[in-house]
Amino acid sequence: MKKTVIITGASGDIGKALAEKFAKLNYNLALCSNARNVEYDDELKEKYKIDIKNYKMDIADFQQVESVFSKIFADFDAVTALVANAGISEKRKLIIDVTNEEINQLVDVNLKGSIVCAREFIKRNMDNGGKIVFVGSFVANYGCACESVYSASKAGLVGYTKALANELGNFDFTVNIVNPGFIDTKMNNNLSTAEKVDIEDMTPLARLGEAEDVANAVAFLVEDSGNFITGQSINVDGGYIPL
C-alpha cells in the first residue's frame, strides 16, 4: 500500500520542494495550505502517478485543523508521516514595539498550530506509529535580535520535539525537527545583496541553502534511513557561524 505524507505550509518554496521530494519517493500527498492555492499539484500528479489532494487549512484555527485531519485520514489509507512545515516570519523590530496581536499570531501559527497538527496525527496513528518532522529554524538555537518572538516560537518547537520523542517512542513514533538556516526562498527576498554576501561569509559552505537541501534532510528522517533517529534537532544551515 502506497504511503501518504501530510505536508503543511505546502504553498511555499520549501513546501513545494518537500512535495516534489516525496512524490519522487512514491508517496501520496496531502497538501495543506492557507496562504494561497498550491499550483504545482497537477504537474506532480501527472509526472509521478500519485494521488494528491489539497486542503485549505488555517493552522491557527485549531477546530479547522481537527476537521481537516479527519478528512485526510478518511481520504487516504496509510497516512504514515507528518511534515509540519507551516510557519510565518516576524518583521524585524525591538521587542518593545511588538504588538500583542503579532505575538499571538506568531505563537499560534509557529508553535501552537504545529502542536495541534501533531496531536491530530498521533491520535489517529496510535496503533501504527509514524514519522513526524517539524520544520523549525536555526534561530531556535542561536536567537535572533529583533526577531525575539519568532525565535521563541521556534525554540518551543525544539522542546516539543524532544518531549514527544520521549513520550511516543514506545508507540513506534519518531519525532525530529529540521532547522533551516538562510534558505534562498521568497521569505528571504527582503535581504539585500550585501546582506546575502555577509551571510555567505559566515557560512562555511559559502552559499545560501536551497529549499531542496531542507527537503532532503526531512525525507532522510521520514524514510527507513531515519528509523533509529528520534528527538533530534538538526540544523540545515551550511555550518552557519553567527558573529
Keywords:
globular; seven-stranded parallel sheet; Rossmann fold; single chain; 243 residues; alpha/beta
Written description of the protein model:
It contains eight helices and seven strands; from the N terminus they run βαβαβαβαβααβααβ. By secondary structure, the protein is an alpha/beta fold. It has a single domain (4-184, 210-235), classed as Rossmann fold (3-Layer(aba) Sandwich). A seven-stranded parallel β-sheet has the order 3-2-1-4-5-6-7, sandwiched between helices. α1 packs across α8 (211-222) and α4 (100-123) runs parallel beside α6. The longest helix is centred in the middle third of the chain and has 24 residues, at 100-123.
Q: How are the secondary structure elements laid out?
A:
Layout: E1 4-8, H1 13-24, E2 28-33, H2 41-48, E3 52-56, H3 62-75, E4 79-84, H4 100-123, E5 130-135, H5 139-142, H6 148-168, E6 173-180, H7 193-201, H8 211-222, E7 233-236
Parallel strand pairs: 1-2, 1-4, 2-3, 4-5, 5-6, 6-7
Q: Which band does the percent of strand residues land in?
A: 15-25%
- The first-level CATH class name: Alpha Beta
So, the CATH homologous superfamily? NAD(P)-binding Rossmann-like Domain
Cα radius of gyration in angstroms: 17 Å
Query: Biggest sheet: strands side by side, in what order?
Result: 3-2-1-4-5-6-7
Helix content: 40-55%
Number of domains: 1
CATH architecture: 3-Layer(aba) Sandwich
Anisotropy-based shape: globular
> If you consult CATH, what is the topology?
Rossmann fold
How many helices does DSSP assign? 8
Order of helices and strands: EHEHEHEHEHHEHHE
Output mean pLDDT: 93
Write down how many β-strands occur, each being a DSSP E stretch of 2 or more residues. 7
Distance between the termini: 49 Å
Helix/strand-derived category reads alpha/beta
